[in-house]
Write a structure and sequence with these properties.
Largest interface: A-B, 16 and 14 residues
CATH superfamily of one domain in chain A: Probable tRNA modification gtpase trme, domain 1
CATH class of one domain in chain A: Alpha Beta
CATH superfamily of chain B: RNA polymerase II/Efflux pump adaptor protein, barrel-sandwich hybrid domain
Strand order of the largest sheet of chain A: 11-12-13-10-4-14
Strand content of chain A: 25-35%
Function (chain B): The glycine cleavage system catalyzes the degradation of glycine. The H protein shuttles the methylamine group of glycine from the P protein to the T protein.
Cofactor (chain B): (R)-lipoate
Number of strands of chain B: 9
Structural class of chain A: alpha+beta
Radius of gyration of chain A: 21 Å
CATH class of chain B: Mainly Beta
Oligomer: heterodimer
CATH architecture of one domain in chain A: 2-Layer Sandwich
Strand content of chain B: 25-35%
Helix content of chain A: 10-25%
Helix content of chain B: 10-25%
Protein name (chain B): Glycine cleavage system H protein
Subunit structure (chain B): The glycine cleavage system is composed of four proteins: P, T, L and H.
Largest sheet of chain A: 6 strands, mixed
Shape of chain A: globular
CATH topology of one domain in chain A: Gyrase A, domain 2
Family (chain B): Belongs to the GcvH family.
Shape of chain B: globular
Distance between the termini of chain B: 10 Å
Number of domains of chain B: 1
Amino acid sequence: MSRPTPLRGVHESLGATLTDFAGWLMPLRYGSESAEHNAVRQAAGLFDLSHMGEIFVTGPQAAEALDHALVGHLSALVPGRARYTMIVDAGGGVLDDLIVYRLAPEEFMVVANASNYPRVAAELTERAKEFDAAVRDRSEEYALVAIQGPRSVEILSTLTDADLDGLGYYAGLPAVVAGHEALVARTGYTGEDGFELFVAASAAEPLWAALTEAGAPHGLVPAGLSARDTLRLEAGMPLYGNELSADLTPFDAGLGRVVRFDKPGDFVGRAALEPLRDVPPARRLVGLVGHGRRVPRHGYPVVVADDGTVVGEVTSGAPSQTLGRPIAMAYVDSGLSSGLAVDIRGSREPVEVVELPFYRRKK
Amino acid sequence: MSSIPEDLHYTKEHEWIGGVDDGLTLTVGITAYAAEALGDVVYVQVPEVGASIATGDAVGEVESTKSVSDIFAPVTGEVVEVNQAVVDDPSLVNSDSYGDGWLFRVRLEGSADDLLSPEEYTALTSGES
């Protein structure tokens, strides 16, 4: 049985198609997922992301504990700022990708993926043992609502006195939104400007209603996980389980920049990752663009167009609304950048190798 | 959920078949129920005109944002016409499943057996939803 979020009733009343995602009953789409995707690119979309995990790390050595537990340099993070980072195992394999918010000098919020956060909470608890810091999984208490798209600032500013213009990308601040206490963060997973609002579970419904009403004149629509997935794919953002897994290191995923060897002290995975930092990985994460309309999908082989030799594997693929062509991310043998095809259910469909992301918003 | 037309026949694979009671040339499409479940259809592959197809054969595919599904031949016969409009604009499967979103026409060889009545298809889909 999938777990509902605090917004299940809202989704049902909107006629959403619900789906199981990582054990949660989530809205896949409300109407046309293409229309939802385009609304986020052109106006704004409203997402329920309450399946994400919120793990708090607090105490005098909270920063040191996170420096040890994660690959990033979290003690260098200024309160009010956020950072994209990862937790790896001793072998350097990625256990999850995370956003860590420093709420106060001794208080951090670690946001983990729905499928991983119980494991992340357990690992953090274990890794923080030697430090004067407490780890608490508060995922049950929180709902997460995201408003994403170029009109997000205008819409949200009608509901809060918070200084949104002063809130930079990857920053967060406590604020009152539509009468509800919230952590307002300028983060997202769509490639657009936007905000993520962490609120008490009980505030989720009234906050959703207020955002819906304030957003209606600006073209805001509710958007489901299907649109979220195509939006993040166009933006070249990795999804755990597709582009990231425990079998891959951050370097394999082309994200070695998140590993901070220059931070003080040892950290879990350091010994395994250090020798890899200057070694080019055997395969590289690339973007693929198809010429026809058939879509390369997760798990399909990337092959040499001429002879069918397998040289890689698709990790995510979808029809791109923005490009009007199928796009995919794939791990492909390093050095290959032309003459490739994807084996789509038995037929070789030629693809072009492109640099990620597929889409970058105009500032 | 849109209503299920009374004048069509259906399969468990969520296809509709028109013209079973009238003659030998049957029209095949995808039900609104299936189109709704697929989401926005982005690609339709139909069999070629002149192809001989047999009941249960995979003769084409329908691809949406999130998934891809085979089209199965609901009857045995020869394909006599395909809907180029739906190949060019696959969203017709979503917007007009029982009309402009038809996929192909087949000249029946033998009889159209094992098709579901509208009542049976209604029961099938209400059990799934």
